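User: My collaborator sent over this chain with a note saying "see what the structure looks like." That's all I know about it. Can you take a look?
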Amino acid sequence: MELNILVVGVGGQGALTTAHLIARAAMKAGMKVLVAETHGMAQRGGSVEVHVRIGDIMSPLIPDCGADIVLALEPSEALRYSKYLNKNSTIILNSRKIVPPSVTVGIARYPSIEEIIESLRKITNRIHVVNASEIAEKAGDIVAANVVIVGMMLSILDLPFSLEHVEEVIKETIVNPELNLRALKIGYNFRSAQPFGE
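Assistant: Without extra context I'll predict from the sequence alone. Here is the result:
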């Protein structure tokens, strides 16, 4: 058994926390797990990618075209790391964009969500788009958007660990477990995130 999950976003969105929630939940389910992070500037706004590999694997890094699941906490980051996608990859994409300074000052252009989805669909049709940030705000704090996406992943996909495993990890490791447990459940129960364009 092998499962490769790539978490991408920008600094401050909780990509590392997301990956560690998944990794610890998988370990609670008795799975072997390797985690590797690579990121740019440590401050908010720098690109972050975290590899979570579950099962009978030796290397901590997902090979190109090897991601089974991509959790994109920021939409353009899904494009940045599209080399890891294949036709069977599932993407859960937060539609709330974070505009980089290069766009703000007019050096670069930020693509529309439609353009991002169109590009990703050239590789895979398994794309779920949701404004997880908006849902997290309703749960109590936008910072829990990453946990909303984990909840959605648990609901949409057949995984070797359960909602209960993630809840245990949140209770054991997160500073504000009540908010994050609420965000996890809301994400898990969110039913309108259908594959884009289907």
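A starting point for your reply to your collaborator: The chain has eight helices and six strands.
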